[in-house]
């Protein structure tokens, strides 16, 4: 008969001890985590990668040195040359973060000519086309690309001499190097405008102008131009 009161008393003690334990557990629970802050979405950065084609127009001005006498060492005529030029280009860009690498080839139809008159006669030069194949490397500031460029240049120039012993003309292909810089602005996702400066330097080539020995003629100059490009979104 005494077992039931003892069991009942033990149960009452257990129930009275439970609330303090539960209260201690609740007070020790960690506070709820704060909500994660919202991440602002940055605007899209323009991607210069892709194939492009375009057109350009500008002005060429430079100088040709025409040397007479053995190996061109007796006298030299400096012929100032200038003229308008324009044509087309094709290229490709590859962008890594802000670095943009690529290549470009262009062909310009030109009206580059000049003449020099002296007591010995008249020298005239004329080039009607110019082409370059160049690498490009630049830094992109979103829709503005600032770049440097360099490579090889090609042209064909006619040189004539009117004087003793008469009139003679010769035409030779010239190969040289080119270097320059430019800036390009993307007006839309596909269309961009650019301004560019190129320096070109062609080495001496021997011309047959009636002298006992070939006459060395060179050409160097500056090409300032503007252009427009259309970029194809390949990716």
From TrEMBL:
<dbReference type="InterPro" id="IPR011250">
    <property type="entry name" value="OMP/PagP_B-barrel"/>
</dbReference>
<dbReference type="GO" id="GO:0009279">
    <property type="term" value="C:cell outer membrane"/>
</dbReference>
<feature type="domain" description="Outer membrane protein beta-barrel">
    <location>
        <begin position="48"/>
        <end position="232"/>
    </location>
</feature>
<feature type="signal peptide">
    <location>
        <begin position="1"/>
        <end position="23"/>
    </location>
</feature>
<comment type="similarity">
    <text>Belongs to the Omp25/RopB family.</text>
</comment>
<dbReference type="InterPro" id="IPR027385">
    <property type="entry name" value="Beta-barrel_OMP"/>
</dbReference>
<keyword id="KW-0998">Cell outer membrane</keyword>
<keyword id="KW-0732">Signal</keyword>
<dbReference type="InterPro" id="IPR051692">
    <property type="entry name" value="OMP-like"/>
</dbReference>
<dbReference type="InterPro" id="IPR006315">
    <property type="entry name" value="OM_autotransptr_brl_dom"/>
</dbReference>
<dbReference type="Pfam" id="PF13505">
    <property type="entry name" value="OMP_b-brl"/>
</dbReference>
<keyword id="KW-0472">Membrane</keyword>
<protein>
    <submittedName>
        <fullName>Outer membrane protein</fullName>
    </submittedName>
</protein>
